[in-house]
Write a structure and sequence with these properties.
Length: about 170
């Protein structure tokens, strides 16, 4: 990849991860509370995520990312466009293990896989599984939806027809 004005775009192009949509976070905040909030926000991110990290904090950051986001695919790009450039593809767990044993030198760009649309829709569907149809209906009605519109949304949420929702509500 030909380098441009910033390492993050070069890292994105060589990462092997989707490049159509991405978000750039830069360095994670040093403040623990603020850092936790940023990581929590990244949990649902479907776009490819770009982060910068200093070598002495890399292993800790990889562990925090794995804990917050799960074991996602990752490309670690180190010292881009310089003599000791390194590009390494793995999972967060594999990267943490490798860099624990062999600490990196030089600034790193982390390119993380975003959540897949399938994964997000499955999680959303599971959200409604523990809720009865009546509770689900009440949830939308409390937000100001009319009953008919709420039932349409319930059908979309649960991946079924509005008729099945209506029948289920009658049986409850």
């Amino acid at each position: 990849s030909l380098p441009g004005a910033c390492a993050c775009i070069t890292a994105l192009t060589v990462s092997g991860l989707p490049t159509r949509r991405f978000c750039f976070e830069g360095f994670l905040p040093a403040d623990k509370k603020e850092r936790r909030q940023v990581l929590e926000g990244l949990r649902q991110e479907a776009r490819t995520i770009l982060l910068y990290e200093a070598p002495h904090r890399l292993v800790r950051t990889l562990g925090e990312l794995q804990e917050a986001l799960g074991d996602r695919r990752l490309t670690v790009c180190r010292e881009l466009t310089k003599l000791h450039e390194g590009i390494w593809q793995a999972t967060l767990a594999q990267a943490a293990e490798r860099f624990q044993a062999d600490p990196p030198r030089g600034e790193c760009v982390l390119v993380l896989e975003g959540r897949s649309a399938r994964e997000l829709s499955e999680e959303k569907a599971r959200q409604w599984e523990g809720m009865s149809l009546a509770e689900h209906l009440a949830y939308y009605q409390e937000q100001g939806m009319e009953k008919k519109e709420a039932m349409k949304q319930m059908a979309r949420d649960r991946g079924c027809t509005r008729r099945e929702i209506y029948q289920g509500l009658l049986e409850e």
